[in-house]
Design brief:
This protein is 40% helix and 15% strand. The chain is an alpha/beta fold.
């Protein structure tokens, strides 16, 4: 009875193959999980201690809806030092993870009939958020040959009078693809030309490899006034469960979205904000240690995929490799289901990430090197048996 009362467009957010696979994995023994995007490292000790100290001291009350002033100041300093972005503390809003930041922004920007341009493949929570706002997603295809990086020509071909904004994620989930600076500059020029708002999702900025450097979109000419920079602490500091993210935007926009944030969740949990403050102002060696470990795993996984004659776009950043399994004769969903059932290795098909093609699978770097070695040995056996 209750389900029948759900507003129609909200009922589209349903269970998925991902949920089925997670349930299946829970019933199997010795599953090596290379599916979910949750780091296998723990948050740095000084971050955990800061949260515990805040709770012990009774710092468990509301903060301002936009967040602790000292945390917003630290984020503004970080954006200046790391990204070359000039934001004041009152242009920063602290949220319950990047997920809430993205939801707030899409609710603020997208209405019925509006279109949001999104890379294909992509993190599919964007699709659900846009649907809930009554808007439409317009997919911009990318190719393995270009390492799944957006191009200005492909974006331009899909701009319509209803296009309100574009979300750009680099490094990208699920591909690990990085948009080169020259292409970012072309995308920036296009956004200025067509007066597009840009959501620049930079959650993977600290996870760059092969000498690549992250470049923030708001640094390009004409972009600061139209760009909302989104970031957080989940990936770089292994703080996924602590749920602290943020966005930075021109003051008038940030102040308006704070009112939506206040209605939705009042504020981000105070002890978790203290943990985020400790993450930014404390030792940074854990961030680099994790990045180096991911890089070692990435290189081992790429070598194993090469040995299996499976191709992929170059993963220049992030936590993922997007591998092409078409040569096995199985589509991506069947490949993943059978690999889980027959060999106890869980990876996810690209169809879970807005990919209409059935050639690719996402493999994460979020298990130990030993487990990745065991998993790829099982994958080799599985493919040989096919």
């Amino acid at each position: 009875m209750l389900k029948a009362r759900i507003v129609q467009h909200r009922s589209r957010v349903q269970g998925s193959l991902r949920s089925r696979m997670l349930a299946m994995a829970s019933e199997l023994d010795d599953v090596i999980t290379l599916g979910r995007g949750d780091p296998d490292f723990d948050a740095p000790a000084h971050v955990v201690e800061a949260a515990a100290a805040a709770m012990a001291a009774g710092d468990t009350h509301y903060t301002l809806p936009a967040g602790l002033p000292e945390l917003r100041e630290a984020i503004a300093d970080k954006l200046s030092t790391d990204n070359g972005l000039d934001y004041s503390a009152d242009e920063v809003v602290v949220t319950n993870g990047c997920q809430e930041a993205l939801y707030l922004l899409i609710q603020a920007l997208i209405g019925p009939g509006d279109e949001l341009l999104l890379q294909e493949p992509r993190y599919n929570a964007y699709d659900h958020m846009v649907s809930l706002a009554g808007g439409s997603v317009v997919s911009v295809p990318t190719s393995q040959e270009l390492d799944f990086a957006l191009t200005a020509d492909d974006v331009a071909a899909r701009i319509t009078p209803r296009t309100k904004a574009i979300a750009i994620v680099t490094p990208n989930n699920p591909t690990g693809g990085v948009i080169p600076p020259a292409r970012l500059a072309e995308l920036a020029e296009l956004c200025v030309e067509h007066d597009l708002i840009v959501i620049s999702d930079e959650i993977y900025e600290k996870l760059m490899y092969d000498g690549l450097e992250h470049v923030s979109l708001a640094t390009f000419p004409g972009m600061r006034e139209r760009t909302i920079t989104v970031n957080g602490f989940a990936k770089a500091y292994a703080m996924t469960g602590l749920r602290v993210g943020y966005f930075a935007a021109p003051r008038e926009f940030a102040e308006a979205v704070v009112e939506v944030k206040h209605t939705m969740s009042i504020c981000t949990a105070t002890p978790m904000q203290q943990a985020a403050l400790a993450a930014l102002t404390g030792p940074q060696n854990a961030v680099e240690d994790m990045r180096r470990a991911y890089d070692e795993r990435r290189q081992a996984l790429m070598q194993a995929l090469d040995d299996m004659d499976l191709t992929y776009g170059h993963p220049g950043g992030g936590m993922y490799i997007y591998a092409n399994v078409a040569s096995t004769g199985l589509d991506s969903e069947e490949f993943c289901l059978r690999l889980l059932q027959e060999e106890g290795v869980m990876i996810f098909p690209g169809t879970l990430f807005g990919d209409p093609k059935t050639d690719h699978v996402r493999i994460t770097l979020l298990q130990s090197l030993d487990d990745i070695t065991r998993a790829t040995a099982r994958m080799k056996r599985f493919i040989a048996n096919i």
